[in-house]
Specification:
CATH topology of the largest domain: Jelly Rolls
Largest sheet: 9 strands, antiparallel
CATH class of the largest domain: Mainly Beta
Number of helices: 3
Structural class: mainly beta
Distance between the termini: 28 Å
Radius of gyration: 22 Å
C-alpha cells in the first residue's frame, strides 16, 4: 500500500489545472422595485429574465426580507441563462443545495424551481407543489426524470403551501437528499440512491434550462401562483447550522465537506468502492475499501478533480463497466485478498486553502486474468 503522503501529493498535483470554484452559484434576492430582470447578487452573473410579467412593476411585492417576486399562476416565469455553475444538478452525483422563501396556496403539481431541456420534454429536476390526486397539494414535491424516462417523485411530510411564508432548503449529495422546512429537517425520506444515482439504469440528464415559477422544457407549463423570495443555490451540501443562518437572513461563504457514492461497479460481485472518513480540509482524511473483486488482482485507486465524466467501457470489451473520474491519475494500492476485498486505503486531505470547494472523484480499477473490474465512484466536495 502506498503511504498517505504519496496520495496527498497526487491530489495537490491534480489541483493545479483546476479553476477555483465559487460556493455560491445563484443569489436572487428579488429586492428590485421595477423592471424585468432579477439580478444575481452572487459572483457568477446568473441573472433571471422575467417572462410574461406584463404589468411591471406590480410583480415586485413586499417579501420576508425586502421585496419578493409574485407569480400569477397563468404564464409568468423566470428564465435563467447558464452563465456559470449551472446546471447545479449534473447527473453525476454533484453536491448542491437550494434555499428559498415561498408563499402560496395548495395547488396541483406546479413548479417553483425547474431544470429541463429545451428540445426534449423528458429530462427534469423540479421542486414544486404536490398533487391534488394523491392528495398532498399542500406539500413540497421533488420530481426528477432522466432522458431515458427513469423517474421518481418524493413529497414532504410538512405542509408548505398554506398561504403563509415558509423557508425551504433542499440539499443533496449523490442522490441522498435532505429537506428542511422552516429550519427543521422534514421527516420524509429523500433518499433516491437505490432507485436513481446507484441504479444501473440511472440514465443521462442533459439540462440546458433553469426556470422559476414554471417548467419550461419545449414549452412552459405547470405555472406556480404565489410569491418567492431570497433564492440561493450552492454547489455543496448545507449543514443544519447553515440552514438556520439562511433562515435568519445570513449568508454562507465557505463550502461544507461532503461524501457520497455514485454509479455502479461491474463484475459478478459487483466490484464496489466504499468511502468513509473525513473530507474536511486538513482533517483526518478519507478511508476506502474495495469489495466484490477477484482474489489476487492488483488494485489501482484513480483520483480525478472536477465533475465526474462517466465513460462506458463496454465498446472496449469490458461489458457493463464505467470509468468515472475526470482527468484522473491512478495509483497502485495493493492486491485483493482471498475474499476479493482490499485492505483499507487511506487518503489524506492536505491542509491547503486552495482545495476549498473542490470536487474530487475516486474509483478503483482491478485488472484480472480475463479483463478488468471497475467500481462505482465515490464523490466528495472538500471544505470545512
Amino acid at each position: 500500500m502506498l503511504p498517505r503522503v504519496t496520495l496527498c501529493i497526487s491530489l495537490l498535483s491534480l489541483v493545479s489545472a483546476v479553476a477555483a470554484q465559487s460556493p455560491l452559484i445563484l443569489s436572487l434576492r428579488f429586492d428590485e422595485t421595477g423592471g424585468l430582470v432579477a439580478n444575481d447578487a452572487g459572483p457568477l452573473g446568473n441573472n433571471g429574465n422575467l417572462v410574461n410579467f406584463t404589468a411591471d412593476p406590480v410583480q415586485w411585492t413586499a417579501g420576508v426580507m425586502g421585496n419578493a417576486l409574485t407569480f400569477d399562476g397563468t404564464d409568468d416565469h423566470v428564465d435563467i441563462p447558464f452563465n456559470g455553475g449551472l446546471p447545479f444538478h449534473d447527473g453525476a452525483g454533484a453536491s448542491f443545495s437550494i434555499a428559498f422563501w415561498v408563499r402560496g396556496q395548495p395547488q396541483d403539481d406546479d413548479r417553483i424551481v425547474s431544470l429541463s431541456n429545451s428540445t426534449n420534454n423528458s429530462p427534469l429536476f423540479t421542486l414544486g407543489t404536490g398533487r391534488t390526486s394523491v392528495p398532498n397539494d399542500d406539500r413540497l414535491q421533488l420530481y426528477q426524470r432522466s432522458l431515458e424516462g427513469r423517474s421518481m417523485a418524493l413529497y414532504s411530510d410538512t405542509p408548505v403551501f398554506d398561504g403563509s411564508w415558509h423557508h425551504v432548503v433542499y440539499t443533496e449529495t449523490s442522490g441522498l437528499g435532505k429537506l428542511y422546512v422552516d429550519g427543521v429537517r422534514d421527516t420524509a425520506s429523500f433518499d433516491a440512491r437505490g432507485t436513481m444515482t446507484r441504479h444501473v439504469d440511472y440514465g443521462t440528464w442533459p439540462f440546458d434550462q433553469l426556470s422559476l415559477g414554471a417548467v419550461t422544457r419545449q414549452a412552459p407549463a405547470a405555472h406556480f401562483q404565489g410569491d418567492l423570495d431570497e433564492l440561493y443555490v450552492f454547489g455543496f451540501e448545507l449543514s443544519p447550522a447553515d440552514v438556520t443562518t439562511l433562515q435568519n437572513g445570513g449568508m454562507i461563504s465557505n463550502c461544507r465537506a461532503s461524501l457520497g457514492e455514485f454509479g455502479t461497479g461491474c463484475g459478478s460481485g459487483p466490484f464496489e468502492l466504499y468511502g468513509g472518513g473525513d473530507p474536511t480540509i486538513g482533517g483526518a482524511g478519507l478511508v476506502f475499501l474495495a469489495r466484490g473483486g477477484e482474489a489476487g488482482s492488483p488494485v489501482l485507486l484513480c483520483v480525478g478533480v472536477g465533475a465526474l465524466q462517466p465513460i462506458d467501457l463496454t465498446p472496449l470489451g469490458f461489458a457493463g463497466c464505467t470509468y468515472y473520474p475526470n482527468g484522473s491519475t491512478c495509483l497502485g494500492v495493493g492486491t485483493l485478498d482471498g475474499f476479493g476485498s482490499s485492505a483499507p486505503i487511506p487518503f489524506a486531505i492536505p491542509n491547503a486553502p486552495s482545495l476549498a470547494c473542490l470536487r474530487v472523484g475516486f474509483q478503483v480499477i482491478a485488472p484480472t486474468a480475463t479483463g478488468l473490474l471497475a467500481s462505482n465512484a465515490v464523490v466528495t466536495v472538500l471544505g470545512n
